[in-house]
Amino acid sequence: MIYSPQAARQAAEYAARALGFSALGVAPADAAQGTHLADWLAAGMHADMAWMERHLPARQNPQLVLPGVRSVIMLTYEYARTDAREVQGRIARYAQGEDYHKLLSAKLADIDETLQLYGGQQRYFTDSGPVSERFFAARAGLGWIGRNGLLVRPKMGSYCFLACVLTTLDLPYDTPMSNHCGKCHRCEQACPTAALQNGCCDARKCISFHTIESKSPTGVVLGDRMYGCDICQEVCPWNTPQQETEIDPHLLMTAPLSRLSAQYLRTLSDDEFERLFAGSPIRRIGLRHLCNNIQQMS
Ligand code: B12
Fold first, then answer.
1. At what angle do helices 100-116 and 5-18 cross, to 10 degrees?
2. Where are the domains of the chain?
3. From ligand 1's centre to the CA of 35, what distance in Å?
């Protein structure tokens, strides 16, 4: 089938906007990633996330994920910028509402269908596949990789999910933008466990890792963080919103959860936990891990 690359890209853009994504950019699938990820793994900074190691070849070569891939479409989706918790025990903003994997996958399926009309074959992920999403988002011109390791956007900051659609279509690419962190080191200085160094996040020290991914209590002092951590984003000057943003209501916290203190959550039965966290990303870690986190809070 003959298609115009511009028309296919435009169709993807229309779909993305209609589905609530805040931006779309395109990177060449063969963009050179350098040795950053391999170095990070060699230094053991992935802690016990063995899956990161297993997927190294695919992460470095999208051809192994989708043979014939030519373009990587990167998308951003906004989540809440404010902390909805009114009581002790903080929850990372990205996890305040429904699980984004499910929410965004349905939208990505829609973009896939749109591109099929142009003869493309696609695979799509949001934090669910062996694709270096930050790397491709930066390469697709959506922002730069900040000292906190996150994709930072000039007007919108870093509070967003990334999602990707790998496609066999050869779409027009975007130009990367320059890094605007300048001399600011606030994120590195504010991280209570010194997890950030030289633009690298050492998961072994990161509170987010310890409260979400780690399989056992780790002895890291979590402060008031019960699930995830946003400290390196809260102090980032680019997160002072310069643009009004509408947040998908599915990603906002329910009233009961905003009011239940960490100490109360520790007393939940298995059934109560399942009901309160149904559909939430927090459900994945289970009640025991949540209780361990609460115990480790200072
Ligand atoms: C593993 C992982 C984690 C781990 C490890 C963190 C880490 N920094 O890697 C843990 C559990 C700790 C974690 C925590 C968080 N995560 Co996380 N995580 C991931 C995951 C699955 C893989 C990231 C990865 O590959 N890490 C390895 C490092 C080495 O790779 P990298 O930092 O992405 O760097 C790549 C490029 O940026 C580039 N690069 C970076 N710096 C440099 C410098 C040079 C010189 C060069 C050449 C290249 C280069 O090279 C690397 C390889 O391509 C991604 C989803 C995905 N599939 O990509 C989400 C993802 C990165 N996480 C995300 C989020 C939201 C978070 C948290 C904010 C959650 C929270 N509030 O608790 C924290 C933030 C912690 C932090 N400051 O990084 C979002 C980021 C959105 C954004 N705006 O950037 C992602 C993209 C998920 C998503 N789809 O939305 N995460």
1. 150
2. 5-81+96-167, 186-296
3. 15
